[in-house]
Amino acid sequence: MAEFAQYECFRVGIDQKIAHVQLCRPEAMNSMTKAFWLDLPDCLRRIEAESDARVVVISSTGKHFSAGMDLGVFSDPKAVPMSGDPGRIAENLRRIVLQIQDTVTSLEKVRLPVLAAVQGGCIGGALDMVCAADSRYCTQEAYFTIKETELGMTADVGTLQRLPKLMPEGVVRELAYTGRKFGAEEAYRLGFVNAVFDDQDALLAGVMDIAASIAANSPLAVTGCKEMLNFSRDHSVEDSLKYMATWQAGMFRPTDMMKTFQARGQKQAPEYDDLFPVKGLFSD
């Protein structure tokens, strides 16, 4: 897999239209530093704008997926002043939390499906992140925890908002109130993860196979699925159906369907055009 970009907390490669974002600080349990929160949205924007990727896989290195938020994020007095007017301190902290939330939300906003491959511990802020992925997979020894409760705070980056839409609310409340770990078997039984693999090598191979299946489909159809599923999660069935009709009226064209039928008739795999890169209005 050719390297696409190198960041402080993760490395990125693109191969066969799959973008692989791999956390690469195992010596620090892949904790999420200030650089991580700043770089992840930039990374996803670059993948959309500068690559032919049709799906993103997020994995990790070492024993644990991630220990979550690095406490150093909030130790910089320039970024997080702890003295002065209380109202201004609170307003500043609110903006910081919103920025961190936006980093996690970037996984939903990117038009490509995002698959998370988890081994070992997925703790605190890391759970916030994988909750925003399209699908999750893990190893047998993986575990997840809303760690913030045990630390004396309320999780604030997305787990409490997204997890109840992925698992039974009563279970989520228990997990949030207690901060206990839930393992791979429970995560699979409750539908939080799609599949459990024996070890990290099998996990990555399996997730890459799924990513390849996604990448082989029409990218316009796939991004339409993600757009509709995200919208439907947050809106009524009636509103979602209306949006679906409007999307179909504007985006549906028979080109990809004809390519599919022709390829099947010839017993070949269809080849679809890539989506146009996502660039700013005045980008080169």
Automatic annotation (TrEMBL):
Pathway: Lipid metabolism; fatty acid beta-oxidation. NCBIfam families: PRK06142.1. One of its GO terms (molecular function) is isomerase activity. It comes from the Bacteria. The keyword tRNA-binding does not apply. One of its GO terms (cellular component) is cytoplasm. One of its GO terms (biological process) is fatty acid beta-oxidation. This is Enoyl-CoA hydratase. Keywords: Acetylation, Fatty acid metabolism, Isomerase, Lipid metabolism, Peroxisome.
